[in-house]
Design brief:
This protein is an alpha+beta fold. It has 4 helices and 2 strands. The protein has a two-stranded antiparallel sheet with strand order 1-2. The mean pLDDT is 89.
Length: 81
């Protein structure tokens, strides 16, 4: 799925977890359908790669979660948790 304009605006063109501006994609937070922007998170390729391959996680990258957990967006909070 491609990112909606609303999601890009909400995320300010950055990964909603780490703040990177590189290669953003949309992730739907299960068990939601993704029909609403409230069910979606904008993530960079590094965050997506790390979440898909937990054996290859770079612990230093995830220090960003100390800030993203305080997001006002509930889907970002759930993913950061």
């Amino acid at each position: 799925m491609s990112m909606s304009k609303e999601l890009v605006l909400r995320a300010e063109g950055k990964c909603e977890l780490c703040g990177s501006e590189d290669e953003l994609s949309m992730l739907v937070i299960p068990p939601k359908s993704g029909a609403s922007i409230d069910d979606q998170v904008a993530l960079c390729s590094v965050c997506i790669e790390h979440s898909d391959n937990p054996d290859q996680i770079d612990a230093h990258h995830w220090r960003c979660l100390t800030e993203s957990i305080w997001s006002t967006v509930s889907a970002v909070q759930v993913l950061a948790y």
